[in-house]
């Protein structure tokens, strides 16, 4: 019995490692941290997150994605911005919150399109192409998220690069996000390898 459990644990670890390698490989050479060096794209896709963290304090991921988007706009790296995130009336409308924050920092709302159906990263990527007609995009999020977004974009036939916004200074949150991301990558790879029949 112990050997069976050990084998299952080993198999799970191999799946997680394999999926992580597949995702990081797809993103290699496609991510940037210097706004002046990233190739300009006609459309930027800002991936949403809640403005308030679970602790009740401002969400550092949110704030730093906003800062990154402002920097890229000032560098003229995009002329159209899709803000894609969850619209949960009982909590937050992520695209609206991000739009408000961006307008306060000088990004014109006339270039923004709000996608409140981005409940998952795959939704945001697919809808950018199928709903908003963008097949060449600049993705904005943190590095761990961008890697998965670039993997999904590649499998959906979208030409994409990504800008890595700064991450949180909290070591605890970084560890939690890495653990969560490991499982999200397994799901992403399985969805691309075994797509639904819909």
Defining traits:
single chain, alpha/beta, globular
Describe, in short, the structure shown:
By secondary structure, this protein is of the alpha/beta class.
SSE topology:
Elements: H1 2-27, E1 31-32, E2 43-47, H2 60-74, E3 80-84, H3 94-104, E4 112-115, H4 121-130, E5 136-142, H5 143-155, E6 159-165, H6 171-193
Parallel strand pairs: 1-6, 2-3, 2-5, 3-4, 5-6
Helix pairs in contact: 1-5, 1-6, 4-5, 5-6
Explained architecture:
By secondary structure, this protein is of the alpha/beta class. 49% of the residues lie in helices and 15% in strands. It is built from six helices and six strands. It has helices at 2-27, 60-74, 94-104, 121-130, 143-155, 171-193; strands at 31-32, 43-47, 80-84, 112-115, 136-142, 159-165. The chain has a six-stranded parallel sheet with strand order 1-6-5-2-3-4, with helices on both faces. Strand 3 (80-84), helix 3 and strand 4 (112-115) form a beta-alpha-beta unit. Helix 1 (2-27) crosses helix 5 (143-155), helix 1 (2-27) crosses helix 6 (171-193) and helix 5 (143-155) runs parallel beside helix 6 (171-193). It starts with a helix and ends in a 5-residue tail after the last helix. The mean pLDDT is 88.
């Amino acid at each position: 019995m112990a050997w069976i459990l050990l084998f299952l644990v080993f198999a799970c670890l191999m799946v997680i490692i394999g999926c992580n390698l597949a995702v990081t490989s797809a993103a290699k050479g496609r991510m940037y941290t210097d706004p002046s060096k990233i190739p300009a794209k006609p459309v930027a896709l800002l991936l949403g997150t809640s403005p308030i963290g679970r602790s009740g304090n401002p969400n550092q991921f949110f704030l730093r994605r906003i800062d990154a988007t402002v920097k890229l706009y000032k560098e003229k790296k995009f002329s159209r911005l899709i803000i894609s995130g969850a619209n949960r009336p009982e909590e937050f409308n992520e695209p609206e919150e991000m739009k408000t924050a961006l307008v306060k920092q000088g990004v014109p709302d006339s270039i923004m399109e709000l996608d409140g159906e981005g409940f998952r990263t795959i939704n945001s990527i697919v809808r950018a192409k199928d709903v908003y007609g963008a097949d060449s995009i600049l993705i904005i999020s943190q590095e761990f998220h961008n890697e998965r977004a670039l993997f999904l974009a590649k499998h959906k036939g979208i030409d994409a690069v990504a800008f890595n916004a700064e991450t949180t200074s909290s070591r605890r949150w970084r560890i939690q996000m890495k653990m969560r991301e490991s499982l999200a990558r397994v799901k992403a790879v399985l969805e691309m390898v075994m797509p639904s029949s819909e």
